[in-house]
């Protein structure tokens, strides 16, 4: 039987603020958590997996893009909101698009390439504007 309760320890995740021709890639989640919310592509780090390798893997799995990683753009912590909710520590990185065209996997249902200061009107994950600002300073 597969347990239905989230792990009782924090999980490590990575995400990428990907820049191409002065624009930033945002993706919209197709499932919970954060269904319908725009965010950065990324996901969980597997045990023993280096952070940058996990980031490249997650970006490729979710978007089919290849990236060049520039550097760490901060961190976020998501605490459990309810019984069974997950606790995540997320390390967002600044990155540049290296190649490929977007093909979203089933976890995502929309994407936008936007100027980093043109996010008004979008529902974003908490703290995303600050992470984007930090990533802009790195690129």
Core attributes:
single chain; 139 residues; eight-stranded mixed beta sheet; 37% strand
How does this model look, in words?
The chain has 139 residues and is α+β, with helices and mostly antiparallel strands. Helices cover 17% and strands 37% of the residues. Strands 1, 2, 3, 4, 5, 6, 7 and 8 form an 8-stranded mixed sheet that branches. A hairpin with a 2-residue loop joins strand 1 and strand 2 (23-29). The N and C termini lie far apart (46 Å). The model has no long low-confidence stretch (mean pLDDT 92).
Broad structural category:
alpha+beta
Helices and strands, in order, run as EEEEHEEEEH
Structure annotation, total helices: 2
- Low-pLDDT runs of 5+ residues are none
Fraction of residues in helix: 10-25%
Radius of gyration: 15 Å
Number of strands: 8
* Coarse morphology: globular
Largest sheet: 8 strands, mixed
N/C terminus separation = 46 Å
Strand percentage = 35-45%
Question: How confident overall, as mean pLDDT?
Answer: 92
Give a short overview.
The chain is of the alpha+beta class and 139 residues long.
Furnish the topology, listing elements before pairings:
Blueprint: E1 11-20, E2 23-29, E3 38-39, E4 42-44, H1 51-63, E5 66-72, E6 76-78, E7 88-99, E8 108-114, H2 128-138
Parallel strand pairs: 1-7
Antiparallel strand pairs: 1-2, 1-4, 2-3, 2-8, 5-7, 6-7
């Amino acid at each position: 039987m597969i347990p239905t309760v989230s792990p009782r320890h924090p999980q490590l995740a990575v995400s990428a603020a990907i820049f191409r021709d002065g624009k930033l890639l945002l993706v919209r989640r197709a499932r919970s958590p954060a269904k319908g919310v725009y965010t950065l592509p990324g996901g969980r780090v597997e045990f023993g997996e280096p952070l940058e390798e996990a980031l490249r893997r997650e970006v490729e799995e979710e978007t089919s893009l290849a990236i060049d990683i520039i550097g760490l753009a901060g961190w976020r912590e998501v605490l459990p909101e309810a019984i069974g909710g997950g606790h995540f520590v997320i390390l967002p990185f600044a990155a540049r698009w290296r190649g490929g065209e977007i093909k979203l996997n089933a976890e995502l249902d929309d994407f936008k390439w936007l100027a980093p200061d043109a996010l008004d009107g979008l529902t974003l994950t908490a703290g995303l504007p600050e992470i984007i600002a930090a990533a802009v300073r790195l690129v």
